[in-house]
Amino acid sequence: MAENVHELRPKMPDSEKVTVNLGFVDLGRIDLMVRDGFYANRADFIRTAVRNQLDRQDEALRQSVARRQLSLGLTHITRAELEAARDSGTPLRIQVLGLASIADDVTPELARAAIASIHVLGAFHASAAVKAALADRIA
To answer: Per-residue pLDDT for 1 more than 60?
Structure first.
């Protein structure tokens, strides 16, 4: 029965791995906080620390997002949107803080015809061929 189940849209990851180098003393201090039960593990500590810093700078971040006219969160660009942009002669200028993704059925030719520029602060997901076609337009 499981062979009859088809995923309609692949699940997008909700996070991206980041590697951080820490000094031995800082790492030991984190391990001590974990051992004493303040955090579940090292990753939990680091995620909490990052969120706390972002919360402290929230107003400055809001102003910067507004000033730069960034779309905040998840932006998924479909083939239909790109065809409409191409057909109207108004290429898209994509600016995202978060995750920008381009649908898997978008061809490199359509992407080049419909996208003037892409600036993503976060993560950008597209096929390798589309990324290669847009390489000179990705900031």
So the answer is: no
Count the neighbouring beta carbons within 10 Å of the beta carbon of residue 27.
12
Q: Is the sign of the CA dihedral 15, 98, 125, 132 positive or negative?
A: negative
CA 72 to each of CA 48, 60, 65: distance values in angstroms, whole numbers, following the listed order? 21, 15, 8
Q: Which backbone phi and psi does 117 adopt, to 5 degrees?
A: -160, 155
φ, ψ for residue 94, nearest 5 deg: -95, 125
Domain layout of the chain by residue ranges: 20-56, 62-137
- 83-117, pLDDT tens digit by residue? 999 999 999 999 999 999 999 999 999 999 999 99
State the average pLDDT over residues 56-79.
92
Phi then psi for 71, rounded to 5 degrees? -80, 135
Q: Which of 110, 66, 111, 34 is nearest to 124 (CA)?
A: 111
DSSP 128: H
Do residues 72 and 97 make contact, with C-beta atoms less than 8 angstroms apart? yes
The token duo for 65 is: 């997002």
Phi, psi of 84 (to 5 degrees): -65, -40
Residue 134: CB atoms within 10 Å: 19
